[in-house]
Write a structure and sequence with these properties.
Chain lengths: 451, 444
């Protein structure tokens, strides 16, 4: 039999992923959403082959376009924005005009999915909500994203990822006990995780529609999505107490914490089973602890005083070893251990590049940028990147021509009436300074232009 | 008004009557009872071992109606014994109870018993999805890996969850290393972004673990999402495939930010405590009776916040968002303290009320540049459960199980008008459905 890892290497063949079929080919998504929560749900569908048309207001665009880490732009674009909205068609329409609504309704006729994350009630008021769109296209799958949901007394409260973290209680959990040192989950995780839940519910609705022909309305509250990730509520209902903050210690296993090594690095180390615990004790030369009544089974070991005792022993052991030594021992003795990695390491780790979970992407407009690949690799219909984010209104002409069958004259007249528009001079909205849009095929109705 | 009524009034906002009608109708429409289940025709085998990412992936399928059979050795999956501070209900830990939803429980010893492997092989021919978390290559060596199962069942979707995945040299080298949540967090870059600034002393300036199973929940969610895409492809073409999740990718692939920062900055970000890299104010502050979360990052939101807190005289120094981002840490910390000086004068309810009154006025005004400063009371999971919003939305569900007693879980995480997820039962004794599975799927 062929060696397993050469079999899987051929099965996944990351270098040829782009030639494999796309699972969502032919699915059309209208993305009315902005910032991160909604756009991420739409991007995941785009990564798997759906045609996602992102709508933005002319000269203003998505609020998140200019929002970059420490105000540092990359080629006049926001480097993290490329991870949030790649593979989409960027259409910029002035929603205030009746003519624009006609365009949207026309597109809704052939769309499969609509995603929005305005404050609840806004889409309805603007007449692009589920009640209006479903009349045009009853098979539509309509996802409304919000912080508190579309019904209930708090529905009109505005929200961001931070507010969902505050409402679900997860913000209060990351930090040290009995201090005021606690922190929100970083990098807007409270938007990204619910965004993935959004993509999941759309996939479920698509699966259901294939079986029954029925579309549906989906109400996703990001606070509720975060609540799905916590067993703290269950713990409270059983014990009446709270898990609270436990610093760098995971209270569900022993030992399990982040430790400092002799070479000033940080390493996470854990034992999930009794076997792993035994092999760790062997590796540390502390077999004598195995006979101790306090450590004979998981439940006993997990009692706070026993756990503290064991975590301290491990901390002392780790402190005299280098990070590489700990990892080497862990591989041989078979217990979980991993170095705490930072941005630079993630970007440059060779194995992530080989796996395709970090990708050096060559873009027609922006050149080379390292972006993240998916954590779930599919052998048959892998997710892929086709292009990065584009300037505001970049796809106006091609979308209207290709998807609505409009003539160049009609499109020009829409431009003249300012129904569709593009960017102003702000970074994040405009193309890189070296890039000439007049020579760009896509901006010229899909025609080749002599350069 | 009574104090309780007063409090409810603060946390309730009314829209137009048309919108109010709509919301009432929605609450009716979104009731999951009696609705169809998306995956009621799918059989899913969850053979995950000592790994909650697999259990969570299986739970999500089970909530959408799939028949999920959890397969574990006769002594039970070690995942049953992972629980905060060792708290358990008759030998089952809290996380396992929380994720027990809607599953069948069957005992098979795949690690050691050839006969049990043959039963698994037989079951897998009827299955749509298999989930496993053994070291890469183990199932293959036992004759029940993707390579063998897909030969007899080409439409099988096979989910494998491990620290470094199923291919690449790294996966081979680290094949024997098991998975844990904290290593998944650390190895995918989450803790590096959390913790206090460098000069605050140890251990506060260390990378900090998220106080939840961020690694395992993200990995489980990614697995289910990837597999549902695969199931959609299977629905269209009849073809199955393998879904490979590496938990060391969990955080970095979910947010995507570390890779691009590492590339464009050429270095790693420092830890900046309670501050945010892009938005300010965007975090939590002390107040008279606890903490509030404040988000007022756009310039007009920030101006509004200054007016509310009577800090208008400092507006000139902090006018633009670029003045407020913490690339000069001392500067941002200074502003943070100026705001804190004011917030501690009020209770959380007072601050929320002040911000809401302001937002209502600015939303009604003809000139919409008034800003929407958002202030909310900071909840703990325990106080969050009390909120009326979640009662109305049935976010928390109470169960009374004969074996496990009474407890609450978070459920109904998304409302869908036609085919919503739901939790039907939570009982999870080892091997409780052995006979059921044998009668339904193995006997012939």
């Amino acid at each position: 039999m062929e060696d397993y890892f050469s079999y899987t290497e051929k099965l996944f063949a990351p270098a040829e992923a782009n030639q494999k079929p796309e699972a969502l080919k032919g699915i059309r998504v209208l993305d009315f959403s902005h910032v991160i929560f909604g756009p991420v749900a739409a991007r995941i569908l785009a990564d798997y082959g759906a045609e996602v048309i992102k709508l933005e207001l002319p000269f203003f665009g998505d609020l998140w376009r200019p929002a970059t880490y420490w105000g540092k732009y990359w080629k006049h674009s926001n480097p993290i924005w490329h991870n949030i909205t790649k593979n989409k068609y960027f259409l910029s329409v002035n929603l205030k005009l009746e003519k624009s609504k006609e365009l949207i309704y026309k597109m809704a006729e052939t769309a499969d999915v609509v995603i929005e994350n305005f404050a609840p009630g806004t889409a309805e008021t603007w007449k692009i909500g589920y009640t209006q769109i479903s009349k045009i296209n009853p098979r539509i799958i309509f996802l409304s994203c919000s912080t508190y949901g579309q019904y209930g007394p708090m529905r009109f409260f505005p929200g961001w990822d931070l507010l969902a973290q505050a409402a679900s209680g997860v913000l209060s959990l990351n930090g040290y006990p009995d201090t005021d040192k606690f922190y929100k989950l970083p990098d807007y995780l409270g938007d990204f995780v619910p965004g993935n839940f959004g993509a999941l519910s759309i996939m479920m609705a698509l699966y259901y529609r294939k079986k029954t022909g029925k579309g549906q309305y989906i109400d996703l509250a990001q606070s509720e999505a975060l609540m799905r990730l916590l067993f703290n509520y269950t713990y409270h209902s059983v014990t009446g107490g709270a898990i609270g903050r436990t610093g760098n210690v995971d209270p569900t296993m022993v030992p399990a914490a982040i430790f400092k090594t002799a070479d000033e690095k940080h390493v996470a180390l854990a034992c999930t089973t009794h076997e792993q615990f035994k092999s760790l004790l062997n590796a540390m030369g502390k077999e004598n602890l195995l006979g101790d009544d306090r450590f004979t089974n998981n439940f006993e070991r997990l009692k706070p005083e026993n756990a503290k005792f064991l975590n301290n022993i491990v901390a002392d052991w780790v402190k005299n070893k280098t990070c590489a030594e700990i990892i080497e021992i862990a591989v041989i003795a078979s217990f979980p251990a991993a170095e705490v990695v930072d941005d630079y390491m993630i970007c440059h780790d060779k194995w992530r590049r080989a796996r395709g979970s970090v990708v050096l992407f060559k873009d027609d407009m922006y050149g080379e940028l390292v972006i993240a690949g998916p954590s779930a690799q599919l052998s048959g219909t892998p997710s892929r990147t086709k292009w990065l984010a584009r300037p505001l209104g970049y796809h106006n002409r091609i979308v209207l021509k290709k998807f609505l069958g409009m003539s160049e004259e009609e499109i020009k007249s829409l431009e003249k009436k300012k129904v569709i528009g593009t960017f102003d001079d702000r970074p994040g909205l405009k193309p890189p300074v070296y890039y000439n849009l007049n020579e760009d095929t896509i901006c010229n109705y899909g025609k080749e232009v002599c350069k | 008004m009574s104090p309780k009524k007063q409090k409810e009034a603060i946390y309730t906002r009314h829209g137009s009557s048309r919108l109010a009608e709509l919301a009432k109708a929605l609450a009716e429409i979104m009731n999951p009872e009696g609705k169809a289940e998306v995956m009621d025709d799918l059989l899913i085998l969850d053979a995950s071992y000592a790994n909650f990412a697999g259990i969570i992936a299986a739970s999500l399928f089970a909530e959408f109606g799939a028949e999920v059979i959890k397969i574990e050795p006769p002594e039970g999956d070690p995942a049953r014994f992972m629980t905060p501070f060792g708290v358990h209900v008759k030998g089952t830990g809290i996380p396992f109870i929380m994720e027990a939803r809607n599953k069948r429980y069957m005992t098979l010893d795949l690690k050691n018993n050839n006969q049990d492997r043959a039963i698994f092989d037989k079951l897998s021919r009827k299955a749509a999805v298999v989930i496993e978390t053994f070291p890469p290559g183990d199932m293959d060596a036992w004759g029940i890996g993707y390579r063998q199962l897909s030969e007899k069942n080409p439409s099988l979707v096979y989910i494998a969850i491990t620290p470094y995945g199923q291919y690449t040299e790294q996966a081979r080298k680290f094949a024997r290393m098991p998975d844990a949540d904290i290593t998944s967090q650390a190895g995918s870059g989450l803790p590096a972004q959390m913790g206090d600034v460098a000069d605050k002393g140890e251990p506060y300036n260390w990378p900090l673990r998220a106080g939840m199973w961020a690694g395992w929940y993200i990995s489980g969610l990614s697995a289910t999402l990837g597999a549902t895409v695969a199931l959609f492809h299977r629905q269209n073409t009849g073809k199955g495939q393998m879904v490979d999740v590496a938990t060391m990718d969990a955080y970095s692939s979910m947010v995507g930010i570390p890779a691009s920062i590492g590339c464009t900055w050429g270095k790693a970000r420092p830890r900046i405590g309670v501050l945010d890299f892009i938005l300010y104010p965007y975090g939590h502050w002390k107040c008279k009776d606890g903490y509030v979360a404040i988000a007022a990052p756009r310039d007009h939101d920030f101006r509004a916040l200054l007016k509310i807190l009577k800090l208008w005289e400092i507006e000139d120094d902090w006018r633009y968002s670029s003045d407020r981002i913490p690339d000069i840490l001392e500067q941002a910390t200074h502003l943070h303290k100026l705001i804190e000086k004011e917030t501690v004068k009020y209770t959380a309810d007072e601050l929320v009320g002040m911000a809401l009154n302001y937002s209502k006025k600015s939303a009604r005004s003809k000139w919409r540049g008034g800003g929407v400063p958002i202030v909310m009371r900071l909840m703990t999971p325990e106080t969050a459960m009390e909120n009326k919003q979640w009662h109305i939305r049935k976010t928390f569900q109470e169960f009374h199980d004969d074996a496990l007693g009474k407890f609450t879980i978070s459920a109904n995480f998304v409302k869908m008008s036609e085919s919503p997820p739901r939790v039907k039962w939570v009982s999870c004794e080892i091997g409780k459905d052995n006979e059921y599975v044998r009668d339904k799927y193995i006997k012939e």
